[in-house]
Records
---
Amino acid sequence: MKYAFFPGCVSQGGAPELYTATKLICSKLGIEIEEISGWTCCGAGVMQEKNQLFGDTLNARTFAKAEELGLPILTICSTCQGVMGQANLRMKRDPEYLAEINSHLAEEGLEYKGTAEPKHLLWILIEDFGLDSLVPHLTRSLSGLRVAPFYGCYIVRPTEALDIEDHPERQTSLESLIETVGATLIDFEGKTRCCGFPILTINEKNSLAMVGKHTSEVKDLGADAMVTPCPLCHLNLDGYQPRAAKQLNRSISLPILHLPQLIGLAMGFSHQELGLQKHIVNTQPIQLKVGAGAS
Amino acid sequence: MLEHDVLIIGAGLAGMRAAIAAKAGGANTAILSKVHPVRSHSNAAQGGINAALTDRGDRWEDHAYDTVKGSDFLGDQDAIEVMCRAAGKSLIDMEHMGVTFSRDDEGKLGTRNFGGQPIARTFFVGDFTGQALLHVMFEQLVKSGVQSYEEWFVTSLIQDGEQIAGVLALEIRTGVLHAIRAKTVIFCTGGCGRLFEPSTNALIVTGDGMGLAYNAGAQLMDMEMVQYHPTTLAGSGVLISEAARGEGAYLRDKDGNRFMEKYAPNMMELASRDVVSRSEQTEINAGNGVNGCVYLDCTHLGEALIMEKLSQIRELGIDLAGADMIKEPIPIRPGMHYIMGGIKTDIDGRTNVPGVYAAGECANVSVHGGNRLGANSLLDTIVFGERSGRHAAEAASGMDFIEFNESAVVRQEESRIQQMLDRPENGDRWGSIRQDLGDSMNKNLAVYRDQAGMQETLNLIPGLKSRYAGVPVQNKGRVFNTDLVFALELGYMLDCGEAITASALERKESRGAQARTDFPSRDDDNWLKHITVTKGEQGVELGTLPVTITKWTPEERKY
Amino acid sequence: MDVKVKIRRYDPDIESPVSYWEEFSLAVPETATVLDALIQIREDMDGTLSLRCSCRSAICGSCAMRVNGHAVLACQTKASESLDSEGIITVEPAGVMPVMKDLVVNFDPFWEKIRTVEPYLQPQGPEPEGEYIASNESMLHLSGVTACIMCGACVSDCTVLEVDPTFLGPAALAKAYRFTADPRDGNAEGVSQRRLEQLSMPSGMWDCTRCNECVQACPKGVAPMDRIMSLREQAMDVGLGNNNGARHAEAFTELVAHSGRLDELRLPVKTVGMFNIPALLSFVPIGLRAMTHGKLPPLMHKSVANVQNIRRLFNKVNQSR
């Protein structure tokens, strides 16, 4: 299994632990990932507000480069996945639009032929790799670890840009994964709601209210951790959790895991290897619950 | 004490237009509706609105003639002239208010073909013109600042002798009963479709205004003229717009034949609605349908046209009948849709009850006579809504409020309602009474009627009324007690049902929407007149009124 | 088809009312909608159930409610497709708006927001005698927004309104866009400057968190969030950039166009304004914490290889617009 790897900006800057954890588990699982050379930011939906054409052009460029590699794209960020899916849908629905974009890419010698189907690691593990195939790699028991899912808006809506009709199992993918790795699922309605990251610098009060609402809710349900496939959600849910707790006038202290970190824990990697010490909210309680090294 | 110069009951297109006109006329105006204005049934109109624009070489006289002919010469031609003359300006006014009408290549208002009219003068917004107009009218209502009583339900009228003095209304949200004093009242309460089962009409269309007016002494007219729309969806009975045929769709029998050739070789699928419905019913009765339906075939229109101009009905076909009109014909059949009959008014909206006006589907001026042309209803609501609002405001400026003892009338009404709430639970629920009424109306007062069938329905009504007298209300609460509202509505429906059936029996001819197998021809000598219904000591009292003829002598009606 | 409908009920008429669940078991036709089931319950089983409904054909907007946790029109939702693994359909009143009784919510806050955006055409200048001349394309575009039936599904599921009731919300903002995008509204060029100014204020267009709930919930394809994005574009185009939201979008684009990837340190600085000392100071504790945890993005942001390709692409794309 080989993929064109699209890391996304945040895994290079504010969430480097995601990048290392991803490479670690893919390597162990035999999922070969070749980073797309010269990949550019997906736009995160923000650039699309100002200049949708430029955003779509940059994503088309990424798709074209992956086509050159002859490999399907692997993403590790809900936002990248969603934005790419929406861009792809626009280009597929309007051949004239795609032609216009290709006219801009031509100067670099690139052409997007319309075949890209970017997939998040979460979907790849379920659909391509198979959860059954994952089980033999799970050498550390996570029994007793209570984990709540948090998807991140862009990987659940709008459904038409995420191929949900053909893949309805994507809507419960995180829950399936949590159960497969042996953790206890803490389900809650807010799992598909918003973490507030996009409005962090626009309306901090509301952004923190969202963080506070979701993390405190699952904390009160007894969760030991929350897992998310989106590093932007992680930045808010983890990085701004202390501020959110202060705004709510209560303590929360809920560790937030990146998707590959949860899987990596079950695969026996150490806390250190997975970068869990980098988090803002202390992840020690998890270490204490599941043990330090590989078992 | 709540009091207004002009109180409008019903906040659909006619009601809101009347309210805006009355306020503009300087009256202390209020509008009252049992649902929020944008929930009114005007939003279900799909196809378009007619107008003859002179700068396109069209003439209001031609529109009027088409309307007169469409009415099978039962329409009052002075009223039709008023409507058709005013149509052009009304249309432009709506556009200036912001309606997003379809445009032609030059950016001017675009048209589509519609039933009963040899040239295209129907202006439209996709296939949801009613919704588009209604929402713009609501925007204008907001702009005008007219006071609005939302989710209030009128339970009785207050009269001093014949003269209207006010209304009693239930505030649905709280269950509190209020008296509102009014110098004039305009009924804009729409039709009575729910007394037929099935019907294209929404659940709220229960003939409230017609029932209230009738019980207050108003004359109802042409009640037998009930329109069965040719294309209602199999199963749910929901409307599939005439616009599909206007854009070129065909009607086919089970073998794929375009049977309209036999009945209206000239206008084909775009003959007047009564003609098309009868044709379909004849084919279905002869065994050329499937499951009581024939087919509407849009497959040759192409995906682009359907997505641009017929997107809503395509969705309905998919959602409610599992058929995508881009790829396959959809099953349709005639279904009860509209009532041409209603509260008799003059061309300014006045009824025979002093201070009471009416406009829109609940009124009968008469512009539609025996059969309404498609896209004339939206026009009717706006033209006569405006006129009645304006005239009511004018009349009110010269009137005083009538005094009455507010707390006494409220207490009396409260005890009447309490009596209903206190009834034992063993009576028939309102739903079953309505179902029996609806089934009977649809069986005997549909496209084809005869003496025996209609008499069967008329005989049923006293029994239904006595069951109604004991109808229990399960919900004893105050807040949002819809069970109580439905029970009250049923009373109005029964009165309308009686009026319709009695009038249909009385008219011993076939004209417009009334097609009797025992009197299959039109009989101008004896029946070129309106049939009226008033409430008498013994119940329904029938009468007649002459048809106003100005320019167009009645002739044979062929399409 | 046997179904179980679990309804969250509320009766304000009893003493100390609280919401409670009630489950009904009934048989409905295969083709029944959730609304059909609710009407059947109301008519045949329990007349005390209150809900708003009218047209049964997705045009009146009365029956918006949450089915299995998401806002839909009950009349447009098939019962057979709404059953969970135990054959239960879960029905609750629409979110955000206060519950009055059972499935009936108080729409007053909804209508209040609609009125706030001055929801009627305001052309400047003289009215033409006939119709305004306008392209069919522009009218079709607007009809996509006027298709809104004011059902409230978008408001019900809005994640911002869930934490902040002062937000104008998707329905009101989409309605506002219907006018800013109308060539007849505003000045001769169809620019509604005053509207855009008001909508750019706090709790307006920039407060949307871009979560797509409203796009997903809307039964008429209005896509309110997309309209809010268009409002943002319109506002930036007429120079209304003096707010964090606009600066954020503009800075993001500039930074990526310049180096190919996002400079996560510069972005927040440019968003709040380089001279906005209080805001910059508020970033310091976060920044310090990130630094001590090894999560601070590099101070010297690296451009992608051959970044001139990206810069050239940016210029080319802009020239074509």
Note: The longest strand of chain B covers residues 176-187.
---
Amino acid sequence: MNKNVLDQNMPTVATLFKRQRILDAIAVSCAEKTYASTTISDIVSRAGISRATFYKHFPNKRSCFDAAVEGFVAELRAVGRAAHSDAADNPENVRRAIAAALALMTAAPDYTRLVVIEAIAVDPSLIDRFRTLLIAALRGAGDGADGALPNKAATRTAYGQAQVLVANQILVGRGDELQELLPDIVYIALFPFTGPEEALKQAQLAR
Amino acid sequence: MTASGKLPRGRHGIPRELVVRSQRERLLAAMIETAAAKGYEETSVADVLEAAGVGRETFYELFEDKQDCFLAAHRILFDDFFDGVSAVYEQPGPWAQRVGNAMAELLDRLASDPDSTKVLLIEIGKAGPASRELFASTFTRVAALLNDGRGESPSAEALPNVANIAGGAVFARIYEEVLLGRAAELPRHCAEFTYEILVPFLGEEEARKEESRLSAG
């Protein structure tokens, strides 16, 4: 095989690292000074790259921001899926997925701020996209609860509600204790599928 | 005052303290109006000065910068909403009804003043890191009000943050409606939003009772 073809079409490891460094840099900067005040200069100096390198990866600040947010939402979905156990019932799996997501958010506070606080100020339509993605991940949570179909409006509320709780926890300075929210978010996530009584029961189990 | 809202020029008997206060108020009102119309980011100090009919020097005597003025305006707006709604909430009666009546008051206020509502909920999110802290402190005040309901809540023990759950649900719903430009129709959702507040505290049956009372009213 021609070595040049490979070089041209495949991102090298160094390139991927640089891209990740850029994403990390925008996350840190937005957490510190908000998206609106973050400049390309902030990003490149934090990432230790040149402006030209930035523009090789992203056409502008907004596309870089979107990539950081989307990457983190994908990670959240992945850890949620990985927490699934065939041996557990559905509510148990919801608890496990939420605990895993909260653990990831605790470990990545800057990205968490990006998703739950900054994104809505940058472009509210982003929230609708993540909501759709994350709600899909919960589908099946209420199976076995009288086969009740979730109320679509209620699942929308649940996402916003969880977002408000996580944002508030971070803003009152307890971002390193996101696990404290586990019972609350289990309740919120199950409520549209199971109604309040079963959601409450599961929240108690999550304590 | 003249028709343009400016104070009469030259010698007028108004004490300086009062002039300054009224200039401050005009600047705050102008900030709300301009930020609602153009968005916080697009609003310049010059826009606010023009709308208020106040000079640049006076502005910088009263405020550090645009953000300082905006946050001061937001604080006044929030306090005004909060005091008005909590006055209704503090009326004696069963807790569920107090929540229902306060919700009606809140939604009416939001619907009748779209500029203030947009500034209160949407534009604040664009006003820098200080606005993040402001969100947390205002949310905490709302949750503290709702904690009156813990006394009659069978679930409060299992859900220590039940007030945050309740407040978060309605905040998320109101935010979305305002964002979609539907603030004027908020009062239609009074029964449903009241249910959202009550259900984590009181359970399905009690929450539905108050929802029905409001729907019938």
Note: Chain B has ten helices and no strands.
---
Amino acid sequence: MRKLENTLSLLSGLSLFIVFVVVFGQVIQRYVFQMPMPWATDTIRIFFVYSVFLGMAVGVLKKSHLNIDVLIHALPTWMKPKFELVANILTMTFLCFVFAYSFSFITANQDQYTPYLMFPMSYVYAVIPLASAAMLLSLAIDTVRMLFFFGDKKAGDSR
Amino acid sequence: MIWIAGLFAVFLIGVPIAFALGFTTLVGLLQTSIPLQVIIQRMFTGVDNFALIAIPLFILAGNLMAVGGISKRITSFSESLVGHWPGGLGMVAVLASMIFAAVTGSAIAATAAIGGLLIPEMIEKGYSRPYSASLIATSGSIGPIIPPSIPLVVYGVIVSSSIAKLFMGGVIPGILMGLLLMLFNWRISKMRNYIGRPQKASIEEVRKGFKDAILALLMPVIVIGGIVGGIFTPTESGAIAVAYALFVGGVIYRELTWKNIAEAFRDAAITNGIILTVLMTASLFIWFMTVKMIPQSVAEALLAIIHTKWAALLLMNIILLIAGTFIDTISALTIFVPLFLPLVQAFNIDLIHFGVVVAVNLTIGMCTPPLGVCLFVSCGIAKTSLREMLYDLALLLVPLLILLGLITYIPGLVTWLPNLLGI
């Protein structure tokens, strides 16, 4: 799991780096060489989308997506893991649908290409099932661990 | 209304806000005949926007400034200017936060950068821990008001208005915010006998501080000047800011290492992923709300009881302040702005004015418990607890609320500068 997290965050950071380089390059190109870079728009768009979805996945792996924990904090300790479990299941339900429908979305848009590079959009969209698979995997492991240690103090502390 | 109630119920279970938005919409969609592929399509188009690229770039610039020694120089320059005033270090904190605000768009970045440097020093000089933490958190909230600003980028994308104009609208409110905080810090410091440094800095010292900080101080000039002058877009100015931070921190100050840089990129990418996940699912949720005609019915219900623009603004302020205390800025923005939009249009409220009012509201929420991210950062650095901070925090929230009142009812404070600059 750690390896997956490291790889994904590395890729996400790298994509952001490419976005930065191309956006910056575009400005330089425009003012210094006075040449437009039509391919830049596509590149920026593709890598920005990659960076966002991969970053989203890392966020789930690191459990750093923001939630409202006012109620959870007010609950007696023994009830907390139950709420966490429900929260995990609801999140997974949504992600399952995202995962499942991303395939039909990709097939439906197979004929789309980016306007300048003619890069197939399906390769861009492919990051969606990839990211959701990583999130589902991590949540599933977490849920199984919670069920296994149900009532055990460890489960509550792992958060 | 049942959807909004359902959404809050899912929030309270502890489902991350982004996924709660998605889940609620999913449940709603299952009861209609709309093909579910729309989920993917809405989520994708929610983030596929050139303006949003400014967000990770400004986060990155802030990260790089903090590790590259730029914030340190901003702080010592501020100290040479206002360090000798009553409550000197407090004044330094506010001024440094204002300068830092002009290079970063995030309140958390500002709080962490300035707090890490000044809180230990404040405590050493006899400021109480709760007061130091409260002052740093409230000054940090200037970050997203003085441009650049992440909440204003998101707002600009939601209502499709000019981000450059919104940025300029934040300038005067941000400066006023700093001045009001300084005024309160001065009064409180007089009462509690928090003194500044014994001697005023000599001209020589100020000059040296300025020379050290000049490269850092140039950054806001380049970023804001570039946007105002129409030389580059807000997104491009983000890239310029990153390049500048890399150059100054790496080549001139030589405090950046390759490891620092790589980490800064990774952290920014992850933070950005988290922020934009909310944006993705929120755009899905709001689309569903619009299909169900909910913003219109909310507006109609409110229009039945509200008849003036001022009452509408007051009501929206109250709702946003409450929401801001327990939802993070970006989520609150993406949920409430589309809901309020019909009302804003019905009363002919200027969108730039409204945007800055919303941003101020929600940043106040970042320094109020229970979910005040700035508070968590500053109270962590000061090693105090939220409970101990409550009294001092309440005192320092007064200037922020005064500012909110001022800009809500004097729209000119926001709209004058962008109109003057003609952008």
Note: Chain A is about 75% helix and 0% strand.
